[in-house]
Amino acid sequence: MILNSRQIKELIETKQLVSGYIDLQTQLQPAGFDLSLKEVHSFSGDGAVDYTNKERKIAPTNQMLQDADGWYILDKGCYMVVYNEIVKMPLNLVALARSRSTVLRNAAAVETAVWDPGYNGRSSSLFVVDNPSGIRLKQDARIAQLVFFTMEDTEKGYSGVYQNERIK
User: Fold this and answer.
1) Secondary structure (3-state) at 26
2) Residue 153, pLDDT above cutoff 80
3) What is the predicted pLDDT for the residue at 104?
4) Of 125, 98, 113, 127, whose CA–CA distance to 158 is shortest?
5) How far apart are CA 166 and CA 141, in angstroms?
6) Rounded (5°) CA angle 30-143-87
7) Residue 79 contacts residue 127 (beta carbons within 8 Å)
8) How many angstroms separate the Cα of 149 from the Cα of each of 16, 89, 116, 152?
9) Structural domains in the chain, sorted by start
10) How far apart are CA 97 and CA 115, in angstroms?
11) What is the mean pLDDT of residues 4-18?
């Protein structure tokens, strides 16, 4: 079952499902919650993925600067975006994010992984610009919608290397 806005709001207020948001009423959607842009990073080197993660290497990035008006100017290519919001997943929920339609209509997309039960942190995602003319993203722009699904309680939540990421 997908959580509706009333259920999401209740979990935000009682369990801190999402914190660090800008405006609850604006970001709360009928079937999800809009994630907003905190930072954009460009990739500056290679990465590596293997089966056991013993040889895993996360590609290095450089944080990009906004122009004087708060815009990130992105050429066609791939970027890492970091969200303002911190998500704290209970053991009975899993979440998936989808690009907001305005992002897609500008020939760009947010690519995401799964927000596992038990995950806590400020996530990042891949932002792909396919528009040959590029795209501009304003600081705090709503770029993805997080959709929450119920599931049977799991005995053990997420415990990977990204647990508690970017929480200061």
Assistant:
1) helix
2) no
3) 98
4) 113
5) 19
6) 70
7) yes
8) 16, 11, 11, 10
9) 5-43+62-150 (2.70.40.10)
10) 8
11) 98
- Give yes or no for a contact between 108 and 36, defined as CB atoms under 8 angstroms apart: no
Q: Is the Cβ–Cβ distance between 161 and 119 less than 8 Å?
A: no
Query: The tokens of 76 are what?
Result: 């066609």
pTM above 0.90, yes or no: yes
All residues at 6 or more sequence positions from 16 whose CB lies less than 8 Å from its CB, including other chains? 88
Tokens of 11: 């979990």
Closest CA to 152 of 99, 93, 88, 67: 93
Question: In the block, which residue shows the tokens 């997309």?
Answer: 109
User: How far is 57 from 151, CA to CA, in rounded Å?
Assistant: 32
